[in-house]
Amino acid sequence: MADSSLHKVRLASKGKQTAQHAKNVGSPDLLNALVVASYGRHFLARDAEGEIWQVYGKGKRRDVAVGDEISILPSGDKQAWIEEIQTRRNLVYRSDALKSKMFAANLDGVLLILAISPPYSTELLGRTLTACKHADVPLTILFNKVDILEGDQETLDAVEQELFEITLGEVPTHYISVTEHPQETEALLRPLLTDKRTLILGQSGMGKSTLINLLIPDALAATNEISMALNAGKHTTTHTQMHFGDAGLELIDSPGFQAFGLHHLTEADLLNAFSDLRDEGNKCRFANCQHKREPDCAVKNGLEDGTLSPARYELYQMLKAELEEAQSQY
Ligand SMILES: Nc1nc2c(ncn2[C@@H]2O[C@H](COP(=O)(O)OP(=O)(O)OP(=O)(O)O)[C@@H](O)[C@H]2O)c(=O)[nH]1
Ligand SMILES: [Zn+2]
Fold it and tell me: What is a biological process (GO) this protein takes part in (predicted)?
C-alpha cells in the first residue's frame, strides 16, 4: 500500500517536468525541486524524477512555501539543503503581529469552502478576499452542504445575497453538496481545476478533506504514508500539503482555521481590496475622512442609500483598525 501510493506520486509528477530539468543547469550538484509539503520548519520537495526529499533551509532560505520552485543540494539519505528559492509568480500569505506565515506560492487560484454548518465566517471570507486581491490570485467560492438547506429557500437566498454583497458579485460562487451530489460536484470542478494549482482554504469542518478525496481518491491516505515514511508527519493535520491528481490537477490542502492576520498589507493595499469604499471615499468633504462621524461623508451616505455594503464597510474598518494597531507597535 505504501509503495503504490509513493509510486502514484512519482507517476503524477512526470507530466509536469521532464527529466532533463532534473539537474540544475548552473551547478551539476544541485537539483531543481518543487516544495510539496510544509511542516513549518522543514519541508518536503519533489524533484523532476518524482523523488521526495526532506529539505531544510538556513536563514532566508527557510522561508519557503508549498508551490515554491527551489534548488536543493542533497546531503544524503533523501535529505537536502535548500540552496535557492526561485522568483515567485505570486504568494498568498497570512501574517500576525509577530510572524508571517506563507500559505502557498505560484498558484493559479484559491478555492474557499464555506457551509452553513458549521456556520461560515464572513470575517474569514473578507480576509481571504483581501489576501487574494493583494496576491493577485483568482478566488472561487464553493458553498458546500446545500443539502442541509433543502426546503429552506429563505436561508439559501439570504446566503446568496450576503455572499454576493461581500464579494460585489465579482467572485464565482458555486453551490454544491460534496457528499450528496458527488458526481455533479466533480463535473463542475474538473473543468475549473484541471491543469491548475489551487490552494483550498476553509474553516475546519466545511468539507475540505471530503472534497479533496473526491477529486483525488486516496490523496489523504497517500499523504499520511509519505509523511510517515519520511517520519515527517507527526502532525498530519497541521501541515500544508500539495496533492497531485489526474490531468495536472494540483490541490493544496492547508489546516482549517477561523481567521488569519493581514499585517503585511499597507493601508493602500487594503484600500485596493476595497476599491468601492476608496472610490466613494474620494468624494468625502475631508481628504482624511475616516468615514465615521464626519459631515458630508460620501461613504456614510452610500451606506445609507444602499449603494455601499455595510458588511464590506465593517470588514474594512476592522482590518484598518488592525493595521493601525500593528503599525503603532513598531
Ligand atoms: N451534509 C453534508 N455533510 C458534508 C458534506 N460535505 C462534507 N460533509 C461532512 O462534514 C464533515 C466535515 O468534513 P471534512 O471533509 O472532514 O471537513 P474539513 O474541512 O476537511 O475539516 P478539517 O479536517 O477539520 O479541516 C464530515 O462529517 C463530512 O462528511 C455535504 O455536502 N453535506
Ligand atoms: Zn468619509
Answer: ribosomal small subunit biogenesis
